[in-house]
Amino acid sequence: MDILIPILSLGSLGLLFGIGLALASKKFCVVTDPRLEKIYEELPGANCGACGMPGCMGFAEGLIQGTCAVERCVVSEEEARQGIAEILGVEAKTKVKQVAILHCHGGSKRAKDKFVYEGIKDCIAANLVMGAPKACVYGCIGYGTCVRACPFGAITMNEEDLPIVYEDKCTACGKCVAVCPKGLFSLAPVKKTFAVRCKSLDLGKQVMEVCSVGCIACRKCEKACPTGAIKVIDNLAVIDYNICDNRGECLKVCPTKTILKKADVNTDSHGFNTDSHG
Amino acid sequence: MDVSKFMAIMISMVFVNNFIFSKFLGLCSFIGVSKETKPAVSMGFAVTFVTTMSSIITWLIYRYLLIPFNLTYLRTISFILVIATFVQFVEMVVRKTSPALYRAFGIYLPLITVNCAVLGVAVLNSEMFFKNGKILPASFLMSLFQGFFAGIGYLLAMLLMSGIRERMELAETGHNSLRGVPLAFIIASLMSLAFMGFNGFRF
């Protein structure tokens, strides 16, 4: 009979708590929007944070509350965005697919060093030491912080210590843009062919002293461009991709070969230049 | 009421018998959530809250159910039952009443539903303040105190560890295979050694 007391007391305790929790879950139940699950399934689930929300679930909540727009998710495919828009009952705006592009072509071959750096092999750390060992203070440091920051494995370093972007893997999430201590990445529409591979605001003479492919602000591209899409601002040529229509006059006249075809510097993950796919 | 006793409990729980560094309880969350300072501190507060509250309810269960019916051998299972129920209940209430608070620490509550540190506090309370079925004076207040400062000790450990791990992210670690959790284990063992220095204190 001694066994009855523990069985009864523990059993009734469990039963009591079970009933209590069941009642509590009825009383305190939080009604979640049924659209939330559906939208979450459509999202890529990478939790990259490129939309500025804490993960995909946060973005889905934001969508339902109306605080963010569907286009804010740059990672998801066009189809998925349409699907989400349908669930929400709004119209999705089409978004131009963008990829990251590096604005430096110096690397270990063409850009000189100003001292030997033997610290931590990380761009952010190296940048703290007199603005990195590169003689050009604007140039790519080459320790691959962007490679480690990319959540999609879309960046690798080439033999010249310059990052290459795999355009088919790049989702334009903007992680590399944010992490690069020199701010060398920007997002450009994938259909635009040309890019200025320099970020130096120095005068032409100073640029030539430290790097053989830097923009020397000669303004030849500005004069050659029939549409006026390329402008030299603060000693640096900048392409306005809203105007540029891929004529390539700037590439032909650039004396330092600073302006390059994006396809020549970015590739897809099979090692082919994206050009070959058309 | 003896104030010095409460002081002794405080110092003992935070430093001498720190739940992580001396008793090695609650290590999974200690390694898992200590990567960044902010979530680590939130976790610390969540644990403090749960240890304090569970100290109170397990004291009540022990005093008014287990001792009168001579069921002290059912201590572990009934404590687990009570604490788990309580944490689930708190999670529901917080989620309903305060979404902001829920986002801040509600997500950590399921992680510590019955964390071994939480159960450890309850068991320790019942061992320290009930001698052979006799209730020591002021044992309720002392249980509450012990629960609270066990949580504070956990918070201290989380804060120290997350601070070090944040710096370690940028430091050179010799070999890549050491990065992350392996290094965290080494750091934890060194910190534990340092906390052994408090061991001579007796109260």
Largest β-sheet summary of chain B: 2 strands, antiparallel
| Share in helix of chain A | 25-40%
Distance between the termini of chain B: 16 Å
- Number of helical runs of chain A? 12
Report the radius of gyration of chain B as a whole number of Å: 18 Å
Broad shape of chain A:
elongated
* Secondary structure: helix percent of chain B: 55-70%
Number of DSSP helices of chain B? 8
| Helix/strand order of chain A, N-terminal first | HHHHEHHHEEHEEHHEEHEH
Order of helices and strands of chain B: HHHHHHEEHH
By secondary-structure content and strand pairing, the structural class of chain A works out as alpha+beta
How many runs of DSSP E, i.e. beta strands of chain A?
A: 8
Gap from first CA to last CA of chain A: 85 Å
Structural class of chain B: mainly alpha
Taking strands numbered 1, 2, ... along the chain, how are they ordered across the largest sheet of chain A? 1-4
Mean pLDDT of chain A: 84
Which segments of chain A are poorly predicted (pLDDT under 50) over 5 or more consecutive residues? 272-278
Give start-end ranges of low-pLDDT stretches of chain B: none
**Outline of chain B:** globular
Strand order of the largest sheet of chain B: 1-2
Give the beta-strand count of chain B: 2
What's this model, at a glance?
By secondary structure, chain A is an alpha+beta fold. Chain A has helices at 4-27, 34-42, 55-65, 78-88, 107-110, 123-127, 145-149, 175-179, 204-210, 220-224, 249-253, 262-265, and strands at residues 98-102, 155-157, 163-165, 185-189, 194-196, 230-233, 236-239, 259-261.
